[in-house]
Design brief:
The protein has about 190 residues and is mainly beta. It has helices at about 10-20, 90-95, and strands at about 25-30, 35-40, 60-70, 85-90, 100, 110-115, 125-135, 140, 150-155, 180-185.
């Protein structure tokens, strides 16, 4: 989407506007030697994950995640990928296996919680790429570039209930086309 298409339906326009106004964001909390990431998707309704009889959910979410050893000169700075000496270690499988779909009667949107693997670097940062895919008229999931958002998490900038990390365009994450961990809400543990 992204461009003004005068022939697009009002529903398509509303969906795009909602995804812009209610962007993905994340929280970060520390538990002993692990970090827990909360991913909030305010523009998605829980009903989008329900599977109609004989069909597929209208929305599918995919993730990629990395543990990052920041380049020493930029350790306290925010996002700084592609810096000399910086290491992005893919952890999508470990992170994906820990994901839990959180439900609440009062909350709007979707919240997903996941654990980062044990600490490997000091200091250590994280990044999570979120891709939202929608079922098209042909019954296939489709995603556009604007459906991928990367959130860079730096624990030294805040953890706990007040931490709030927004997607950033300044991160050039090493996204692998076939490296997405696809969330299937039908098999996820909810509110463990």
């Amino acid at each position: 989407m992204g461009s003004a298409n005068r022939d697009a339906s009002l529903d398509v326009y509303t969906d795009e506007l909602t995804s812009i106004n209610q962007a993905v964001h994340a929280t970060l909390a520390q538990q002993d030697n692990l970090y827990m990431v909360g991913i909030i998707l305010p523009s998605l309704a829980k009903e989008a994950f329900q599977t109609p009889l004989g069909g597929r959910p209208a929305v599918r979410i995919a993730f990629q995640a990395w543990q990052i050893r920041p380049e020493p000169r930029y350790r306290l700075a925010g996002p700084g990928p592609e810096q000399p000496g910086e290491l992005w270690a893919p952890i999508s499988d470990n992170f994906g296996a820990s994901l839990r779909l959180l439900t609440s009667q009062s909350a709007t949107g979707i919240a997903i919680r996941g654990l980062m693997p044990p600490r490997r670097f000091a200091p250590e940062h994280f990044a999570v790429a979120v891709r939202i895919e929608r079922l098209d008229d042909a019954g296939e999931y489709q995603a556009n570039d604007h459906d991928i958002q990367v959130v860079y998490l730096n624990p030294s900038l805040g953890t706990g209930p007040g931490s709030h990390y927004q997607p950033t365009d300044s991160v050039n994450a090493p996204i692998e086309q076939n490296g997405w961990y696809i969330l299937d809400p039908r098999t996820m543990v909810m509110n463990p």
